[in-house]
Amino acid sequence: MPLTLATTAPGEPEIFASLQGEGVSAGRPCTFIRLSRCNLACLWCDTAYTWRFEGDNRPHRDGESFARQANQVTLDEADAAARIALLGQRRLVITGGEPLLQGAALARMIGHLPPMHIEIETNGTVAPHPALDPLVHQFNVSPKLAHSGNPADLALPPERLAAWAADPRAWFKFVIAEPDHVADVIALQRDHAIGGERIFLMPEGRDSETLRTRGRWLADICSHHGLNFTDRLHIHLWGDTRGT
User: In CATH terms, is domain 3-238 a member of 3.20.20.70?
Assistant: First the structure.
């Protein structure tokens, strides 16, 4: 099975060199590959073009649907790897959508790559494919809280959270839009014994003004609870655009 990717323009797979904008690797140069399809539907998702295709009635605050043919493309694993290698970066960030839905194909793609640091960004609900798991150096796990609009039994499966908490490669990033959302993070931290040094809180927002406004009070909360703060560097630099 080939990989199913998002697009930057019709027919053009979303594979690009940039800086990591979020989390523990923020500011590092890397190549991104963005896969299509997701098993969750976040109300505030900034990549809804990876899953909210025409006919998909899952809610999103923008209410926009996307034509599948223009926003989704398939690519042979070897072809995807060749495009990644040509960009010359030492770090690859595999994002989505939910990349772990395509774990077997990702394992085959990585097998075609030169040695590089592999990061996977995941919503934390899907276990890594057995062929993929040993190839990954870092998991950026972003569990979705109640304000995402996803039911907890789907978005926060306890067995998967426990598995990520036990994996030293996993870092946790939570999207925060209001101060009271942090209580849910603290509860998950307590229930799964996750050290504060592994947790990043990130303001929800798709423009610099919103990020700065929420970042001011969120930074104080992080300091109070001994958690890390992460901004969204790419939004400040390039705005809410594809391929950045």
Answer: yes
